[in-house]
Design brief:
mainly alpha, 55% helix
Length: 120
């Protein structure tokens, strides 16, 4: 039987922009879990329950809902092809919040701060 090691010099290209699944998945999962566990992340852990909150314009304004819990599930189930897809979903969480909430509002500022931490 042929065993493929996770690291092989022939396949290691530090200059390469494309990374293998194992290269990015663990750090990304760790980062998402760290963000998820922050107290500030509480409003972003589950899909916005716009019906319960009476936000009936939410689906018209937000075309693709996204939340940290969904991202965690997708990471755990290998649903992301690459780092960019996963990172874009995280960015979408903050973008949706900032799109729906007024600039300067508590939620807007919270999303802005979370985005800043994520991008750092």
């Amino acid at each position: 039987s042929h065993v493929v090691r996770a690291y092989h010099p022939a396949f290691h290209h530090p200059q390469s922009t494309t990374t293998t699944m194992s290269d990015w998945k663990a750090p990304m999962t760790k980062l998402v879990n760290q963000i998820y566990s922050k107290a500030d992340a509480e409003p972003f852990r589950e899909p916005v329950d716009w019906k319960a909150l009476g936000l009936f314009d939410y689906p018209q304004i937000i075309k693709k809902q996204m939340d940290l819990g969904t991202i965690k599930d997708k990471l755990d189930n290998g649903k992301y092809k690459n780092l960019e897809d996963a990172a874009n979903d995280v960015r979408l969480v903050w973008k949706n919040c900032m799109t729906y909430n007024q600039e300067g509002s508590d939620f807007y500022i919270l999303a802005q701060n979370m985005n800043k931490k994520f991008e750092d």
